[in-house]
Description:
The complex is a heterodimer. The longest helix of chain A has 18 residues, at 22-39. The two termini of chain A are 38 Å apart. Chain A has helices at residues 5-17, 22-39, 47-64, 81-88, 110-120, 147-153, 157-163, 187-198, 230-235, 249-256, 258-275, 282-293, 313-319, 322-332, 341-346; strands spanning 98-102, 123-124, 129-135, 140-145, 169-174, 177-182, 201-203, 210-215, 221-226, 245-246. In chain A, 44% of the residues lie in helices and 13% in strands. By secondary structure, chain A is α+β, with helices and mostly antiparallel strands. Chain B is of the alpha+beta class. Helices cover 19% and strands 28% of the residues of chain B. In chain B, β24 (358-360) and β25 (366-373) form a beta hairpin. The longest helix of chain B is centred in the last third of the chain and has 16 residues, at 402-417. Chain B starts with a strand and ends in a 12-residue tail after the last helix.
Amino acid sequence: MELPLKIVKEVEEYIKNNKIDKKRAEKIWERVREAYSNAVYDPEEPIGVVTAQSLSEPATQMTMRTYHFAGTAGIQVTLGLPRLIEIFDAKKEPETPSMTIYLKKDYQTKEKAMRIAEDIKEIKLKDLVISTTIDLINMTITCKLDMNKLRRYNIKPEELAKKIKLKNLEITTKEDRLIAVSTKEDVINLHKLKFRMLESHIKGVKGVTHVILSKNEKGEWVITTLGSNLKKVFDIEGVDATRTYTNNIFEVYEVLGIEAARNVIIREAMKTIEEQGLGVDVRYVSLLADLMTVTGKIRGIGRYGIAGNKDSVLARAAFEETKKHIINASVKGAKDPLKGPIENIILNQVIPLGTGAFKLVGRIGKKGK
Amino acid sequence: MRCDVYINGMYVGVTDKPEELVAEIRRRRRYNMIPSEVNIAYFKEFNEIRINTDAGRARRPLIIVENGKPRLTEEMIRNLKEGKITWDYLLKHNVIEYLDAEEEENAYIALSPEEVTKEHTHLELNPMSILGISASITPYPEYNRGDRVNYGAKMVGQAIGAPVFNFLIRTDTKFNILAYPQLPLIYTKTDNVLKNHPYGQNIVVAVMPYEGYNMNDAVVINKASIERGLFRSFYFRTYETVRKRYWGGQEDIIGIPEPGIQGYRGEQAYIHLDEDGIVNPETDVGSDTVLIGKTSPLRFLSAGDFTADIENKRESSLCVKYGEKGIVDKVIITETPDGEMLFKVRVRDERNCEVGDKFATRHGQKGIAALIVPQEDMPFTKDGIVPDIVFNPHGIPSRMTVGQLLEIIAGKYGALVGKRIDASAFSGTKEEVIRNGLIELGFRDDGREVLYDGKTGKAYEATIFIGVNYYMKLDHMVADKIHVRSKGPVTLLTHQPTEGRSKRGGLRMGEMEQQCLVGHGAALTLRERFSSDDTTIPVCSNCGLIAIHDNINNKSYCPVCKDSKIVKIRTSYAFKLILDELKSSIVYPKLVVKEL
C-alpha cells in the first residue's frame, strides 16, 4: 500500500534527524505501513453511514445543551446546532457573517491598525446625520450633519454631497446642512428617497457593520468584524490577504474558489463542534465537505442538495417529496438500476455494500463443465 | 366602572359596586340566607364577578377570620372534643366555610393561629391541608425535596391495595387486590380517613448494596418473605359475551362448536368446556383457552344463500386474552337490558411477587425487584432480624429523601414499642422523640446496626441502616408485560408482523437500526432482518408487470402478453404493494428482469 506523501515526508525527516541506520529504518517503514493499512477503511465499507452517525450523534447532544458565552466582550456569533445546520445546509448567507482580518508586518502598530479598522467599517449617511426634515412644498430633504463625526472621519461636506448618487436628487451643501432637492414632483417618492439617501454608502467596506480591534495570543493586532466582504477587504492596503478569513462559505467560494470553500467548511464545522466540547474526527467532516464540493459548486445536504440529487428514483422517493419524484420519473420514463443500498432494502435484496458487495454466481448445466 | 357578573360561567348582568355585591352575598351565605354551596369571587384584573353554584367543584373547609380573630374559639374545640357540638354546628354558626378554587383567589389564608393579622380572611384548619389526598399520605414530607413528594403522591395512586371489599361480587374488567394489606406503621392524619383501605405492607429494610443486584434503584427481596405472602396479590379479569340475535331470525349458539365450521379451533381447544359450552369454576385456564363456546352466523350472506347450515356458521368463542392465565373464579349468566343472554366469566390469578415487579415507598423511591434471595443468604442482625428488602444507599444522596430515612427509624421505633407513629406533614412526631426512644430501647439513635453476612457469617465492616419502611406494590407487574415472538401473526395489507403485545406483535427494526446494519456492512444480516414480508411474485419478462399464477394447472402466464416468458422474483411484499399502488395511480412500473 502506498503511503500518503505527508507521512512519507514526516518519516523520512524523522529518520534523517535521529540518524537511524538502514536496518532500523527499514523496520520503522514496515511498522508505519502496517499502522497505516490498519487505519485505512476496508473496501466497500459504508463510510457514508458511519460519517452520518458520527456527526449526528453529537448533533443530538447539541440540541440538548448548547454552551453560550454570555457576558464576554466581542461579537455575538451563531454557534451550536444552528450554526452546524447552517454550514451543512449551505446557506447562502450565514446569520452572523464575520471576518478575521490579519495585518501585514509593517502595520503592526495600534495607530496603523486603528486606521485600517476605521477604513473597513462601513459608514452610511445616517451615521453622520443628527436630524432630517422634509419640506414638501419645495420638495427638499434637509439633513443636519454631525460636524464632530465628519471631522473625525476626515470628510468634508462637499465630498459627502458627491458621494451620494441618487436619481432625481440634486444635492448641495450649506454650512453644516445637506440640502437635497428632488427634480421630480412626486410627494410619495420623496419619503422613499429620504430613506434611500440615508442608507447610502459613504465610506468603508460595504456590509461591515461592526469592527473590533484586539490583540491575539501572539500579540498581533487582529480586526474582527461583523459583516463580511472579502473582496473589498483584500483591496485595502496593509491587510494580509493570505491569512484573512471569513465564515461566509459562499463568499470564499466566489473570491478564492472551491478548494478554499472546502477548507472553510471543514474549519467552520470543526470549530462549532469543538466549541461545544464534542469530538468528531476531521476525516468525517472532510468527507462531508468533499461531498459538498465535488461538483465544483457548493451543494447542501438535504432535499435540494445532495439527498435530492441521488440517482435512484426509489431512494429519492423514499426520502422526501415522494409524489414529486414519482411523477417526474413517470413523465421522463426514468430507469432505476437498483445500485444503491436504499433501493435494495426496499426490494429486500442484498445491498451492494460490505459483505454484499461481491457476488459469486455458479453456472450449472452449461456446456463445458 | 361597570363590572360583569357571571353565574356558572353564564353572563347575567353588570354592577357598579362589585365589592359591595361580593360582601353582601358572602354575608348572606354565612348567615344561611342563601345555600352554603354558593361561591363568589371578584377578579379585579378582569373586572368580573364569578358566582359558582354548580356541582363538581373541589372545595375545602377553612376557619373564618374576622377582624384578625379566628371564629373558632378554645371553647368550641373543647366542646368538639367532648362531643357536645359537631362539624355541622360549626358550619351553621359561621365558623367554618368551604371555598372553591376561584373564591380562594380572594382569600388571604393564615397557616397558623399565631400569624393571623387583620388582613387575613381565613385560617387553615391544619397546615397539612395545603396538600392533596395522595400527597398528604407521605410521612414527613417537609423533610423531602418537593418533587419527590409529588412523585410519591403519583405512585400512591398506582399502588395495589384494598380499594374495595366487595370484589368477590363485583365484575370489574380488571381488578387487583393485595393479599395481606397492612395499615402503615408510620401514618399521617389522612391515613386515619383511609383506615379501611391500606395500600401496602410494613417491611424491614436494610439500606446497603447486595452484590450489585440492587444497583440503579433495583431491590433485592427475601425469598422467605415472599413465601410468607409478602406482596402477594390477586388479579381478577372479567370476560363478557352476549348471545346476539341477528336479522332474519338467526342467533348465536352457545355450546361446544361443531367441527367444520369457519375458524374451528380443534377439539383440544374446547376440552375445558362443560356440556353447555361454558367453563366450570375453578378450572385452570391459560392463554387463548376457550371460556365460552359460541357459534355465530356469517357476517355476510351471499345472495341466494339462505341455508343456515354448518357452512354458514363461524366460530366466535370467548377466549382468555393472550398473555394471561388464571383460574375461573365465577361464571355469571344474566340478561342485558335488551333481553339478550349475557355471560360473564371472571378469571382469578394469584400473583406472587417476582423478579421484575415494581415497588415503591411513599417518598417517590421506586425500584424493580432484581433478585430474590433465600433467607439464609440475606444479612441479619444480632437479634436475628432479616430484612425483607435490601435497598441501595446510592438512591438517597442525589434524591435527598430525608423523610424516608426518618420514616425508617420511626418505623423501627414504632415496631419495637408496638405503637403506630404519627408523621403528618408539619406536625409529625419529632425526630428527638424517636431518637431518644431508640436509645432507651438499647439501640443506636441513628438506626444503624451491625449486620452479618448471611453467606459467610462475618460481620460487615460498616454498620448498616436498618428499620421498618412502608412499601407499596405498584400496578406494573412483569406478568402483564412479558412478551416474546419468533413467528406469529402478520397484518393483512402489508404482510408485515403485527405491532403490540396484545397482538403477539414483533419489535420494530426501525430506520436507525437499519442504518446500523448498513454501517457495519452486514448486508446479509440486513436482508434477513428485513425479510419478514418476503414474497415470490411471477413477473412477465416482456411487459414487466406482475403475471398470474394458476395454481390448478401450476402455470404462470401474463394476461397482457399471453405467450411471454414468466420469471419468478423474490422481493418484499411492501415492494409488490408499491407497484400495485403506482399502477392504480396510472404510473407504469416496468420491471426489467434478467438472469444472473
